[in-house]
Amino acid sequence: MFDRYEAGEQAVLVHVDFAAESDREDLDELKMLVDSAGVTTLAVVTTRRNAPHPKFYIGTGKAEEVAETVQALGAEVVIFNHALSPAQERNLERLFQCRVLDRTTLILDIFAQRARTHEGKLQVELAQLKHLSTRLVRGWTHLERQKGGIGLRGPGETQLETDRRLLRDRITHIQKRLEKVAKQREQGRRARSRREVPTLSLVGYTNAGKSTLFNALTSADVYAADQLFATLDPTLRKVQLADVGPVILADTVGFIRHLPHDLVAAFKATLEETREASLLLHVVDAADERAADNTLQVKHVLKEIEADEVPVLMVYNKLDKLDDVAPRIDRSDDGTPVAVWLSAQKHQGLELLLQALSERVSEEVFCATLCLPPSQGKLRAELFALQAVTEERIDDQGQWLLKVRMPDIDWQRLNKQGQGAALRFIVSDPADKVLQ
Fold first, then answer.
1. Is 210 annotated as a binding residue?
2. 3-state SS, residue 135
3. Which of 157, 162, 323, 399 has its CA 20 to 30 A from that of 229?
4. In the CATH hierarchy, which fold is given to the domain comprising 365-427?
């Protein structure tokens, strides 16, 4: 349907080293992405620029150099380590006479290969369709309304308009199905909340070792490999923590710098597991020289999905690749665990992680007895709406005595909304107001 060259498995990579730090991409990361996609790299062309060229992104002379390289090596696709505009893609394909992909399209292709569940496939298709909708070009011409005469009159719209309408209809259909999936996930979270089961979500840069750690903690058989985006579909497993009981551990998709916005939007239902978690386990590849920058990129994505206020425990993984570094727990000034150093693959330091999780999760749960006067019916209703009330009775003065248990983040949010109103109703001496 579309006037595009067919993509192949033999690629020439193009990387631009920009002067501005915010515009730079990592060439090694591009090579890993290409390898994860199953594509063979024939050559790498690099250049330096202050700003993208409006027509070819890389400048006329360098574009002609890439075209000569494509012809000489018989490459089937050229992959840019940057986001291209639809016009730049068409101009480059016309010059190279082969398919041109940008970084976003490459990531979407990897996601399409990795999707296993029905939900994952829907999310990838939605992201691909949104990306494709800006890249529709001239297709069939026999339906164009500009033509006249017997046998040439079309249905009143050009084929391009037809394609756009079909895309819009398909996007709407997928969004409705994903909304149903989101409701199902929300019901699951409510059920866990009613059972007071905390959720711990693994987050981190792609290939940081999240799935390997997940398998080590849960004895699961989640696919784990030394490649980018090995995990796409979220997996939930139950883990027993000392002094806490059962918790739910969620393995999620890895993040990457300049994560396409269409992907963030499409994976909203999946990322809800991260936003609604009681505690985030931020897994970092401690042996990666870009670990500090990757950590910042993850924090940026967490802020983008509104999960930056969820408590975090740093987990520095792949300790076996470092010299003279032993598994340990780093603590704050008040003794709270803030980071754990371990090796998930070698099963080194896992007991320290479980110890840190037990301490953090037990801290993150607020438990108290509240004594509410009849005038505080609204606060009582909010506590019941949060499913935080475990017991209730009325004392001799007609006041509500409530035993509450909820995530500390919900308690803090409740007090923030009421400017600390709920704080003054905590029973200072529970022995005086004990619930039988």
1. yes
2. coil
3. 323
4. Alpha-Beta Plaits (3.30.70)
